Amino acid sequence: MRYLPMRRSKLVGTEGPGSLVISPEGETAVVGALDLWFKDSYGKKSNNIEEFTVHEPRLKAILKVDKFYTPPEFRKASTNAMEVVPNSNLIMPLMRFPKWHYCSSCRSLRELELDQTSVYLDCPKCNQKRYYKQVPFVVICEHGHLSDFPWCKWVHGNEETKCEGNLVIQMGGGTTLESWRIVCEKCKDSRDLQRITYFYKENNTSYLGNQLNKNKVGNYTCEGERPWCDDNKEECSAAPVAILKNSISVYMSKKISALAIPGDYSENIDLIVSKIQSSAKHLVRENLRLLDNLEKKVKFIRRNLRFDLKEDITDQEIEDALMYIQSGNEYEYSEEELEKPGLLIKEKEFEKLTSAVNSSELKVEPEWEFDKNETVNGNYYKPYLQRLSRVLKLKETTALYGFDRKDYKNTTEYSSYYPSLYKDFESAHEKWLPVNEVYGEGIFFQLNLEKVVEWESSSEVQNYFNSYLERIKYVEHRDDSILKPRNIMIHTLSHFLIDELANVCGYNRAAIRERLYIDEAQVGVLIYISAGDSEGTLGGLVRLGLEEKFFYILDKAKNNAEWCSSDPVCTELGKTQGQGVNGLNGASCYNCSHIPETSCEFWNMYLDRSLLIDPKFGYFK
Fold first, then answer.
1. Model-level pTM?
2. What is the pLDDT of residues 335-346, one digit of tens each?
3. Contact 281, 275 (CB under 8 A)
């Protein structure tokens, strides 16, 4: 496959190992497994990748892996023989897939190799060089395999066929799969592609699996191919499903993220730890391991980090920081705690976001807190909120731990996904996962818990929400914790605030994200940007967290929630049969409360304007 520019952040997401990426010319390739990373164009493995190490102890404790690494950036080797560029010429492994192509002139099918670079090839039928196009279909299964469509087996109606005749695609010009017909020029068998993408959920079978063998000797099952691991295959009995290669169901990344929070020690110790663990200080860490006593290590830190540390830092603080790093800064969680890792991660974050913090990776400034004795001066919203804080700086670390194909599975069995990211997981020297670090800014607010409990316990809210729960009782939920009136209400409010903030802060909606804190005693939201460089973002969002500006924006967001361009249909459907996937939304649609799915924690589900603004039971009624 030819070289493609790739964003490091996407390699920990939609373009992770096993995903399909598309070049500007329209060619598709699959991203290689993790044990094929950190190699140059000649296949030589880098000997020192410590500079790409990322330290995030909370994620490490939950995912139970040895290390985290960021994807390597590409560095050109120096033309000067005396100048050494570390980790130069490292590239991401890409394999051409699907392997089947057809001639742009005669439409003869041909299977190429995974490492094929050129697609201008000699066509045996045309007797000259032709451009070969990739076929638009691949085959997936629920176990994560990715295979080529079985063109030869399909046209002959037999998975044991021995015919090696030339296959030709005949296109009838229609818009359906019925207009595509495959013809074998040797035995004259032909077959169209009608219904090859059908899947039957009731018995977990597919049209491709049921109908490939015309003689009905048995169902065709998944080939078990893993092209991101070279020509690797596994035994698989799942039903294969044909699908367009650019479909979202081909690759659904599984990620978990955490905000960096300072430890339970002083600001100076936190600064020392963050500097030593910085990816740019990998040589400092290597040299520290060679020193045999603590006194030498303290002097070494003093000498090598003299421009990074404050003048008032004492030797004792450096010793404490070194002891903290040496202990492995491991978090230990019980099995019961690990059942809900999302709440576990956010518990400590919420604690820090509700107080003043000034560390190198998290800076929180409390802006306003509700006081019953305070005169609200005509501000309608203050009694409904508990606190408002400006997050001047934050660091978010996102880890990719696997992927699903066909259907997204709700599970916290993270380790069950790791083998799919590796070519040979059992033989891997160390078990590691790719992560991405981004710095940003944000606004945090928490609703008044007393007001929320009073509102949520009212008979009008309970009756409305019980009818909602009755409507969706057969749905398998990704996270049951969202199924409370307060949580759906604050989730909807977050969307309208993101919409309004995007109008005035200078960032588009896709760059702004939400992070919900919806445990029993929390009811808070962090609306943040995490798209900046190592120095953070430009402050366009955090300045809107000032008291005099935020409440004005909140008022506009609430007013926007009162009306949808699809009303009265949107509101009426929301109260009767629901909207969106499985009817999980109430009064919520693309015309009012949907934002880019990458910005939403629940993929634009569990939203309802009525819980915000309904005259009878809305929180802001």
1. 0.85
2. 665 667 777 888
3. yes
